[in-house]
Write a structure and sequence with these properties.
4-stranded antiparallel β-sheet; 148 residues; mainly beta
């Protein structure tokens, strides 16, 4: 296990947190996921966009290296397409469950990764004591890129 460095991550509204990560790449991935899973609303405008780009900012506090990543935040996301086979026929996602975690006492976060295209699906559900989680209240998708 490598040495973890402290990173500051933040987004456009000014919300921030400090994390420990083994690499800038790992910190950037956590920042993108954190921004994608943020609480956003359309406001009073019924014609507001269903999605928008937010920025995930990361700074390694030891080296001073800084990064800015665009994150597509979809307020009502449809599942992005997977890959196509050699005949151009769209394949269905092959989801692998990455686990579930309890957060804030009454929420459960479930993560899954498509084994074909690498898409990450993150679902947040409300729970009630002694009951299984309800249908996801929020689903976000993150597609990793190779330019990290």
């Amino acid at each position: 296990m490598g040495t973890k460095h402290t990173h500051r991550i933040w987004e456009d509204s000014g919300a921030e947190k400090f994390i420990a990560a083994e690499s800038d790449k790992a910190a950037r991935a956590e920042a993108r996921e954190w921004v994608a899973d943020g609480s956003y609303s359309r406001g009073d405008d019924d014609l507001a966009d269903e999605s928008f780009f937010a920025h995930a900012y990361t700074r390694n506090l030891l080296t001073g290296d800084s990064y800015t990543d665009d994150v597509l935040v979809d307020l009502s996301p449809e599942e992005p397409v997977c890959l196509s086979d050699e005949d151009g026929i769209e394949l269905e996602h092959d989801w692998r469950d990455d686990g579930a975690w309890s957060v804030h006492g009454t929420q459960t976060v479930t993560r899954a990764t498509c084994q074909r295209c690498g898409l990450l699906r993150r679902e947040t559900s409300e729970t009630t004591a002694g009951q299984l989680p309800h249908e996801p209240a929020k689903t976000s998708y993150i597609r990793h890129t190779d330019d990290e």
